[in-house]
Amino acid sequence: MMSEPKGQYVTEFSEPGSEVVPWAEVEAVLRDAEMFWLSTVRRDGRPHVVPLPAMWLDGRLHFCTGAHEQKARNLEANPRCALTTGTNSYRSGLDVIVEGTAARIGDEATLTRLARMWADKLDWPFEVVDGQFSDPGNNDHRAPVYAVTPAKVLAFGKAPYRQIRYTF
Predict the structure, then answer these.
(1) What is the mean pLDDT of each run of 10 residues along the chain (168 residues)?
(2) Which of 15, 57, 119, 136 has the highest count of CB atoms within 10 angstroms of its CB?
(3) What is the pTM of this model?
(4) 51 Cβ contact partners less than 8 Å away, ≥ 6 residues apart
(5) CATH 3.50.50.60 applies to domain 6-107+144-167
(6) Domain segments of the chain as ranges
(7) Residue 100: which of 61, 141, 50, 137 has the closest Cα?
(8) Taking Cα atoms as reference points, which of 55, 78, 31, 70 lies closest to residue 147?
């Protein structure tokens, strides 16, 4: 479990009189969001962005993908990535970006907790098989699970507009 990060109000990108968004609010966005956009970099330097569900657990964002998919190949070459969530509204909401490093996890207890979260939150069942997710009844389809440990989190509040940088 990570310690609470230090929030730095970014005056340059914030309206006068706006305040720091408490970490608890940022963490609630990460915990409650169903969809994120994962940004990785291909081996040739081109960006790659895809929507996917992710789960906030123990201070890290977790997602899964097939080992053959572009995002998995990108992370194999460069594990640094960003996950973004929030709202498409201009005048309301809180957008959150998590920058960090992704690492495959295989811990059965953590994977079991995550599989339960996917089922409870998204009605998407997974079984844990050999340190990966598997579709029930189809052990041929395996999905490695990645955990992104935040290095920096940016929160963009709207109305009032403000930016807060959280470091760990």
Answers:
(1) 83 93 96 98 97 98 96 97 96 97 97 98 96 88 96 96 95
(2) 57
(3) 0.94
(4) 35, 36, 37, 38
(5) no
(6) 6-107+144-167
(7) 61
(8) 55
